[in-house]
Amino acid sequence: MNLKEKIIRSKITRLQPRGETTLIRRLEEELSRPTPANLAAEPSKEVKIAPPAPRPRRPLAEADVVDFRALKAQVHIRTKKHGDIWLVTERTGTPRFEILPEEMRILSLAADRFSGKIVEVRHNVPA
Predict the structure, then answer these.
(1) What's the pLDDT score for residue 31?
(2) pLDDT under 50 in the chain at which residues?
(3) Beta bridge partners of residue 79, listed in sequence order
(4) Can you give the pLDDT at residue 66?
(5) pLDDT at 127
(6) What are φ and ψ of residue 45, in 5° steps?
(7) Strand, helix or coil at 111?
(8) Distance from the CA of 101 to the CA of which of 54, 64, 68, 91 falls in 20 to 30 A?
(9) Is 112 exposed, middle or buried (0-12, 13-18, 19+ CB in 10 A)?
(10) How far apart, in whole angstroms, are the C-alpha atoms of residue 34 and residue 24?
C-alpha cells in the first residue's frame, strides 16, 4: 500500500458514515483507480525509434562564401570550448576573435580532408 492509499484509507475511517457518504464514495473511487506508479510498472507498448544518424557535413564551397559575403552579416558564435567567435565579411579591428568566410572554408576543407574536427582555436594578435 502506497502513501496515497494510506492517506485515503485514514480519511475514510475518520469520516462518519451517515453524514459524508458522497465524500466516502469519492475517496473509494479514487482508491479503485490505478496509481501512476502502477501505470509505470506496466511494460511500455510504444515503438522505440532510434534517433536519426547525423548526416555528414559537406565542406563549405566557394558559393557558400560568396553567399555569406552577399549577406554583409556578422555572426556571433558562443561556444563552451572555444569562447566567442565572430564570423565576419571584413575585419573590423575590434579586439575580438574574428574569422572570415574564406578561413571558415579552409577549416571546413581541412576537417573534411583529414576526417577530423576542430580541437583548438587560437587568436594570434599581430605585434
Answers:
(1) 74
(2) 127
(3) 83
(4) 93
(5) 44
(6) -100, 10
(7) helix
(8) 54
(9) middle
(10) 18
Q: Report the alpha-carbon angle 73-105-95, nearest 5.
A: 50
Geometric angle at alpha carbon 100, from 78 and 112, rounded to 5°: 80
Reduced to 3 states (helix: H, G, I; strand: E, B; else coil), residue 73 is: coil
For cell 565542406, the residue is 59
Handedness of CA 71, 95, 103, 115 (dihedral sign): negative
State the SS3 of 9-66: HHHHHHCCCCCCHHHHHHHHHHHHCCCHHHHHHCCCCCCCCCCCCCCCCCCCCHHHHH
Considering the chain, what is the average pLDDT of its residues? 77
Report the distance separating Cα 105 and Cα 66, nearest Å.
11
**Which of 75, 6, 59 is closest to 35 using CA atoms?**
6
